[in-house]
Amino acid sequence: MTVIKIEKGKCIIELNKRFYPKPVIKEGVESFKGFGTIVFTEKDKVIITPNKTIDVNEIGYDFCDHLLNIIQGGSSF
Amino acid sequence: MIEEESILDNIEVHKKFAIISINPKLYPLSVIYSAAYWLLDKAHVIIDGDPETEILVEIRPRVKNVDLKELGYKFNDELINYAVYTVQATRNKKLREMIVENALSGNLRTGPVNPPKFDQNSQQKNNEKACIPCGAPINNEADWLPTTEDPESIANIRPARNSPKDFR
Predict the structure, then answer these.
(1) What interface predicted TM-score (ipTM) does this complex get?
(2) pLDDT at B21 over 60
(3) Nearest residue on chain A to B55, judged by CA atoms?
(4) Domains in chain B and their CATH numbers?
(5) Window A:8-67, CB contacts with B under 8 Å
(6) Residue A76 maps to a domain
(7) Does A77 map to a domain?
(8) Count of CB contacts below 8 A, A vs B?
(9) At CB < 8 A and 24+ separation, what contacts does A71-76 make?
């Protein structure tokens, strides 16, 4: 189940692994580092603390879009 | 006339987003990814659900005042679009492979199509003893006009014949 939650200025994303495979998430995490602090936890959650200029409510959706981009073979970042 | 909602409607509209339900038996996951990717410049897309029974696609427009139902219909259209493309690509696969194979084998000829210049002189020397089209011997070397544009001497260019003696 994919869920995007905002807690204390952090964006927590729980991705459905059947649609977003682990290697894709890892690649997405690597290329998303410029947007803030990003961690891929052992429980397969992605936690993003975005830079001040970036909207915390939007970054989770941007990250999911980026993963889709990787799956389709391109990269916009 | 009262506008009826279609019983086949697969779009659930919420305030800020819409959820599209897709039957994975009709559309493979690759087609769903392609259609979702196509929608990325208009909306944020999240894929969820169960790949065996029901796939859910959440679309959240990037700008306000977008008709979510309309966007959902466009997504449905793209699903059909990519599904047709996939079917056609599968049907034409063998033909495409044959075309590529032929194109590549054409590039793998063993001998050069146009021999390099240093080869042309030696080739002309070999050819100057006989006329290629008729096989007649060429005795007078002055009659032979070598040309770099005709390395195989196919044209066999000779000077113009001015007297009856030249025709013998």
Answers:
(1) 0.88
(2) yes
(3) A19
(4) 11-98 (3.30.70), 117-160 (no CATH)
(5) 16, 18-20, 61-62, 64-65
(6) no
(7) no
(8) 40
(9) A71/A20, A71/A24, A71/B33, A71/B37, A72/B33, A72/B34, A72/B37, A75/A31
